Amino acid sequence: MAGLSVKHLVGIKELSKEDINLIFQTADNFKSVINRPIKKVPSLRDITIANLFFENSTRTRLSFELAEKRLSADIVNFSAASSSLKKGETLIDTVNNILAMKVDMVVMRHPNPGAAKFLSEHVDSRIVNAGDGSHEHPTQALLDSYSIREELGEVKDKKVVIVGDITHSRVALSNIFCLKKLGAEVMVCGPATLIPKYIDELGVKVEYDLRKALEWCDVANMLRVQFERMEVNYFPSIREYTMLYGLDGDFLHSLPNKIVVMHPGPINRGVEITSDVADSDQSIILEQVENGVAIRMAVIYLLAEKIKRES
Amino acid sequence: MSEKIVFNYVELELSVNRLCWQLIENHSDFSDTVLIGMQPRGYQLAQKIHSKLIELSPVSNISLGSLDITFFRDDFRRREAPISPNQTDIDFLVEGKKVVFIDDVLYTGRSIRAGMDAINSFGRPKQIELLVLIDRRFSRELPIEPNYVGMTVDAIDTEKVIVEWDKDLTHKARVSLIRE
Fold this sequence. Notes:
The structure holds 2 protein chains of 2 kinds. By secondary structure, chain A is of the alpha/beta class. Chain A folds into 2 domains: 12-136 and 290-304, Rossmann fold (3-Layer(aba) Sandwich), CATH 3.40.50.1370; 138-289, Aspartate/ornithine carbamoyltransferase (Rossmann fold). Chain A is built from 11 helices and 9 strands. Chain A has helices at residues 17-33, 59-70, 91-99, 115-122, 138-152, 170-181, 210-216, 238-245, 249-253, 275-278, 285-304, and strands spanning 48-53, 74-79, 105-110, 126-132, 159-163, 185-189, 205-207, 219-222, 260-262. By secondary structure, chain B is an alpha/beta fold. Chain B has one domain: Rossmann fold (3-Layer(aba) Sandwich), CATH 3.40.50. A 5-stranded parallel beta sheet of chain B has the order 3-2-4-5-6. Chain B has a 3-stranded antiparallel beta sheet with strand order 1-8-7. In chain B, strand 4 (98-106), helix 3 (110-119) and strand 5 form a beta-alpha-beta unit. In chain B, helix 1 crosses helix 2. Chain B is globular, with a radius of gyration of 16 Å. Chain B starts with a strand and ends with a strand.
């Protein structure tokens, strides 16, 4: 068996189809591990991982932390709110200081696109991107495709529509790369102001009518509207967005096919999807969260394997 | 490269039968005993032993599981190529049970050590025994010895012991020693 072709997980763009399948196969094993009475393996006993979150996060951070703990890694946590960044330290200095304390791997979320790539080129450590601005969020895309594979058997030839704020969403971009590499058909749907101008260059369809999009698809990934990244108003009101791009129970049941509903969280209940959709049997939102831990265990395990032990 | 057949299918079948009778002697009705095959090849042997036991003894229900030890190995990050994990399938608790580990070849003893570590994820066994088809004695790196041995093979480090099965243990089954 060959390992991953990359040393860092900066984005899905750098991964090959074989890498993605290897991560999925490894995640299958870890999924069985986390359903055992004792949900822990000793593989990463001598690895130390720093979780650097320069931007707020709850589930990604918890998911990474759990994944690391279940692999028996030692971890240190760091959040921007309590850091020296406020005192004017640069990113490289901050990270190099942490690495000087003998840290083997860095999991980083950062508000600036490209931060993970930049770091991977300038510091001597393995970098896992946990979201960099509106660029990529590779582990989210992996767990989304993994959840589709689990629900529908495979990803190839499945029709997936990503609905909502495509412009500001790193989840959308990573998902497009991942789904395309696995052979799915991808469509994006949302208000024209929230769909990037040249998105069709990535080989995706564009649709502005939610009903048409949902009638076409097997899976709908309903993204959150990222109010925090919007400097201007992209649509007149939340109410109007919900009326045009929100999914409620009646809408879902009026569709000809029984589609799978996904959401990367956190949900704005009543904006992108209503509670009855989020809690329906067509929604796999909580499966996505469970799979997130298994996927992150697989990514960390496979990257750690490449840190050869000095003898 | 040279290949020498050390055991043919007749000898293999005799050994498997003898191992089954020894198990029956020590575990009678298997009510407190579970069989765990070490993935991948130990599980094939365990399946054979399991079906043979059901044939030979009056008991119709003997618990059988498979254990993969990849994540418990002690050579993580020390190997050139990564190992692809196999499935672990244990749908019962081993808490308080007598566990019989089944593997095809016992060599350094490191997989069995990892197995003893891994099985604890499913409870604390009352006792662990080890059954191996082939014991490569004089190659142990850990103080681990089998309770049930099919055959003993003396081989040096540069030689490989290969156990080949087919599904029903017919004339194609054999154990060979490969010298490179």
